[in-house]
Amino acid sequence: LEGYCGSRPVRIGNGAANQLQLDIYGELIDAIYVHNRYGGPIYYEAWEDLRDAVDWLCENWDQPDEGIWETRGGKKDFVFSRLQSWVGIDRAAKIAVQRSLPADVFHWRAVRDRIHSQIHERGWNEKKKAFVQHYGTDVLDASLLLMPLVKFVSPTDPRWISTLDAIAKELVTDSLVHRYNPEVSPDGLAGTEGTFSMCSFWMVEAMSRAGRVDDARLMFEKMLTYANHVGLYSEQIGPSGEALGNFPQAFTHLALISAAFDLDRALG
Prior knowledge:
Shape: globular
Helix content: 40-55%
CATH class of the largest domain: Mainly Alpha
Low-confidence stretches: none
Largest sheet: 3 strands, antiparallel
Strand order of the largest sheet: 5-6-7
């Protein structure tokens, strides 16, 4: 069977189904934190489940995984997975304090702080002057554009500004952002890929928060030209502007909305 534009073979299922992806805990718990703050208070039974998940994360965050990009190149100590583990534990501790819920908050905070220190010690490459994809490498990764967005680091911290500049230099072509360079960081996946639309909007927001509002606005406006006739985006954009990958891609639109809100606030 052939798929879109003759792509073959058509596959069923996903090889990433059984992977360990520690970043998901941070993404899930951050969503719960936002709902608890702006939507409605968390129910006790839900809190019990969440507390169990955080206790598990506190015991298991410090291990290699396949990461956000579901790579087939083997497990690594991905910085983004550590980052999101920090997010999950940090947000859960805040919920516990805000709602006076039972939890070992002191232990959670100690683990959270340990992760924070480890990222700065092992995720920072002094020679590269940037946070990198995983420990022991100099490879960059666009997922780290979320560092200031999740409030792990100040958007104007010298380390972050240096990382932002490095990503702009190595992974960005005009307004299009590659998630990483597979030539220097083999991911076990055959063929080439397009740029990731979601990463471009992360870049917009990171620049906006860093005070580079004019650059962020220009990049945002360029990205708007890649939507289709009803304003939808694909997962990836090819070298000639064609839509590639999953379509429509919800993650891309979430990143677009977040970038638009932040840019609007920055522009006043």
